[in-house]
What does this fold into?
Amino acid sequence: MTDVDPLKQNAASPLPANGIGEGIADAPVVMNPLSKITHKAFGLLTSRLFLSVGAQGLVSGFHFALNLLLLRLVTPYDYGVFAFAFVLAMFASAVNNALISTPLTVYTPVIKDESERAAQEAMFSTLNLLLFGLLIAAGLIYAKLSGLDGGISMAVTTFVAVYSARHFSRSAGYARMKPLVTATGDTVYVLSGVIIVVALVLTNDELNVSMVLYALAGANLAAMIVERIRLHGRNRGWLSLGKITQYGEVWLQSRWALAGSLTTLFLAQAHSVIITSTNGPNAYAPLAAGFVLFGPVRVALLTWQNMVKPELAVAISESRQLAVRSQIRTTTFLMAGAVLCMGLFLWLAWPLIFQFLYAEQYADQPMALIVGLWSVITLFAASYNAPAAALQAMRDFKVLAIASIYGALLSGVMVSLTLYYFKPETTLFGILAAEVFMAFYLTHTLYSRLKAVSETTES
It folds into this structure.
């Protein structure tokens, strides 16, 4: 048989009626520059990263709009209560994240055996249920001992407990490498929340903070149901509980994560805890009102961290340190750049922002200083978000805990001193000092760890 040049054979082969010939099936597709740009744009818009971040953007937008609504419709005292309820919810989620959700997203993705993985997931699900019950009990006991208003206390307690449970439900989607499941839950949460809040506004002369907190709790429950059904179907597999006797091995690492999570949150929220405890919700409200503009950014940072931890854990387990370094570096620059652009926009549009948000209820407060300080604080927080995610993926919880303990001490001392000698808004300088410390410490620590791992691998 005579050898035939494949290229000549393809050129000579007639096309069938449908215009597609077997001879050119493997030929490269030539695309013009516009088609390439369109193809890449379509790929980005339909990627799981974009859809996940987009869904979380809906959540951030909903919370942002809700805060704007409350700033205009409720008193500073009521808004202070609402904002502090979110602070308590963040502390509850920090406990959940350290003890349950982060181990779920770091340990289970690398388990290849399905039955073993299901047993691990059931164990974490049981722990999540126990934490939910503990939060409810703690809220009720505190309300009774402190003599607080029963209606508000119960609303805050319910919201905090459900918020924490939803954090685990969201992490389950990431642990299964199915971020679109979490994105679906986020969408359901927003739609449910909007419907309930709009109904409350239309049917009540005055918007009650307790009603709003119950509405958010109900929306989170709806989102959890959808997420669990999408992950496990309708066979009630999502209701499976498991033994927690094997948690002892996880606890050796998660105890440091717990210390790290709580102290990390405290270093960022020392002002809210100390001011509300000593001066009351009225004094805390202006600082919370200034933070409203940066809430969506913080949520987006946390979403990226939760979504990327399983991928970073796999990359590190496969000794792909260069890929990890590249991703951390690129992400850090993108996040910091986005915050800088936001700060510039706020500076240019400040007269309009002040008139729309703060002129009516907070005209006597230094809102320009408060918002400016929050902008700088958010910049440094964004700069170490990626290194913190990588260290969690490396299960280096002890290092994170030690760093955040130092940061929390620095924040707590400076917030207390500035509040004692000056006005509440100056406490933000204490938060800024702690965030600057964390940014430099964690970045340096991560690159030192990656360098050590690379040298060990090469040797």
About this structure: The chain is about 80% helix and 0% strand.
